Amino acid sequence: MRVVTLASEDDFEGWRDAARGLAQAGVPPSEILWQVGETPTDLFAGEAAMPVVASRVVKVPPRFLDLARSAILHGDPARFALLYALLADDPRRIADPADPRVRRLEAMAREVRRDIHKMRAFVRFREVRDSPAFPGIGAPGVRYVAWFEPAHHIVRANARFFVERFATMRWSILTPALSLHWDAEVLREGPGASRAEAPGEDPVEDIWKTYYAAIFNPARLKTGAMLREMPRKYWKNMPETALVRELVATARQRETAMVAAHVRSGGDADAAWRALRDEAAHCTRCDLHRHAMRTVFGEGSPDARMMLVGEQPGDQEDLAGRPFVGPAGEMLDRAMAAAGIDRASVYVTNAVKHFKFERRGKRRIHARPDAGEIQACRWWYEQERALVKPGMTVALGASAARQLLGRAVTIAATRGRVLELPEGGLGWVTIHPSYLLRLPDRAKAEDEFAAFVEDLAAAAKALA
Ligand code: URA
Fold this sequence. Notes:
This protein is α/β, with parallel strands linked by helices. It has helices spanning about 10-25, 60-70, 80-90, 100-120, 155-165, 205-215, 225-230, 230-235, 240-250, 260-265, 270-280, 315-320, 325-340, 370-375, 380-390, 400-405, 410-415, 435-440, 440-464; strands spanning about 1-5, 30-35, 125-130, 140-145, 170-175, 180, 185-190, 305-310, 345-350, 355-360, 365, 390-395, 420, 425-430. It has four domains: about 1-115, no CATH class; about 125-195, no CATH class; about 205-250, no CATH class; about 265-464, Uracil-DNA glycosylase-like domain (Uracil-DNA Glycosylase, subunit E, 3-Layer(aba) Sandwich), CATH 3.40.470. α2 packs across α4 (about 100-120) and α6 crosses α11 (about 270-280). The chain starts with a strand and ends with a helix. The relative contact order is 0.06. It binds uracil (URA). Uracil binds near residues 313, 314, 317, 324 and 350.
């Protein structure tokens, strides 16, 4: 028996190097024991230690390596042997979906991907002052600490995501097998931790609870959907779930007494909005988050009576993290001023919260969001409307109109009149200000600008 000792549970490189040598030497799977431990990899140690000579060349398709990279992170101890069995047999079989080994590996990779996503979605940082509990990880100050229990060995593979997302924060993620500590410059690993070492309730949790209470609508209670979004396994680590359980339990009696109204009358809409915006910063509901710099959330007073909805942030908005601050924003500001609307009095947001673009050289060129991306972002738009409760919502352009009305419409067919929105409240559809920037004919641009101003003024008047 040959014993291969990998450095860690997620040691893909160690497995790959050992497996390549063994497969080229024609060592059968039944002669290898894969283990994880402290001892450095000693490929051919063990009872049958003997020199190994490469007797064949094993060509490995990229698809095999991709699958192996994910499947290695699975918690099943048989994964190393299973992958080796396929490699030693014929790695090209990876293309055969009927092969039971491939099916099992694909299922593992799926579970790993799900776990990676769960960690991204359900890690909740709690704010702590640096304490002796986290020594040697940077100067004293605020640190955000989270506890997470992954199902698989995905923590290290997920580290980069958290570093990029929270680059300027100092944070620690504690898990049973491994801890990550980021001090805004260097990522360090530490040993596993226990739940008791992670901080408990703190003011950040209060904000979460406020937010959940503010958006919780007992009349729309869908426990199944909630469980899908927030599987029970994670409930115990999330501050808001203590509250959600209580809200669910009492939902029936309170169908008419909306929690949101209650919280808002307590004047906590600002805190609820901040919590909502911070949550949106981690949004992975569609693929756009992969390329954009950040989520650009709406902004303005949560008490605004008018909400303006654009299409999506542009290049400058993506860099600044604020909606309508680039050329289209300047045009919008001019039109609002001409219509007598103070930007500070309205809430400005977008149908889609991430910048979608195509790269051309160094430039990032705007690309239209598709129906799926608009739909994926609908959740945020609904939360914003649930908080702000605008009397009038103005759609700027066709993508925004689709978000407001929940279906594809043309500007020509919907512009210029008050519309009843599906979730209640009034709506108005007009052009997107960037349309004005694209008009080459000056006279036409002036006419269109005047019509845009007229639309904004009419929407404001309808509200009054
Ligand atoms: N265009 C939009 O639709 N929204 C912005 O925030 C900027 C440009």
